[in-house]
Write a structure and sequence with these properties.
globular; alpha+beta; 7 strands; 139 residues; 3 helices; Aminopeptidase; 26% helix; binds coenzyme A; 33% strand
Length: 139
């Protein structure tokens, strides 16, 4: 029998869920310094009342930069990361950004690499410490 996907909803960042975003981001990336610019876009995935994941997108002059994406361990492999990333990709596509969406991933983070590749990202540059990936809208 196929596994049933859990029900979750995606919310844009607002005054009510901002604290949930910071709390989740700090929990998932304890060593990162997380700050928001006014022009950043953030979406949270909720399952019931619980914030299960987030994606944080920053506009650059000719592209978008994926500042961060994370899903709580218990919620991984349920399609939440893909749905969140799709939001960020849609934003890049709608804006007609010529450089598309770029991100850096730590070289040893093979799970994240597999995730991004499965979502259509191409490896653009490889160094010992990190890989740079890019996605461009086909349209
Ligand atoms: C990377 C991350 C956001 C993926 O979120 P997720 O909700 O588990 O991803 P999804 O369930 O949407 O996975 C979509 C596809 O990506 C691939 N994928 C995801 N996690 C994977 C893993 N651990 N190993 C191999 N492939 C993986 C699969 O193809 C998967 O499709 P499938 O489950 O139908 O096989 C999540 O693992 C995470 O939060 N990791 C820790 C934080 C992190 O490393 N963030 C990225 C920093 S650059």
């Amino acid at each position: 029998m196929p596994m049933r996907r859990p029900v979750f909803r995606i919310q844009s960042l607002n005054a009510q869920n901002e604290e949930a975003f910071f709390s989740l981001a700090r929990e998932l990336f304890p060593r990162a310094r997380i700050h928001l610019l006014d022009s950043d876009r953030v979406w949270l995935a909720y399952s019931g009342g619980e914030a299960a994941g987030f994606v944080h997108l920053r506009a650059l002059p000719h592209s978008f930069y994926l500042q961060g994406i994370g899903v709580r361990p218990v919620w991984r492999r349920h399609g939440i990361g893909r749905r969140l990333l799709a939001r960020a990709m849609a934003q890049a596509a709608q804006t007609g950004s010529p450089g598309g969406l770029i991100l850096k991933v730590r070289a040893g983070n093979s799970e994240a690499l597999a995730f991004y590749r499965s979502c259509g990202f191409m490896v653009e540059r490889v160094s010992l410490s990190s890989w740079r990936l890019r996605w461009r809208s086909p349209n």
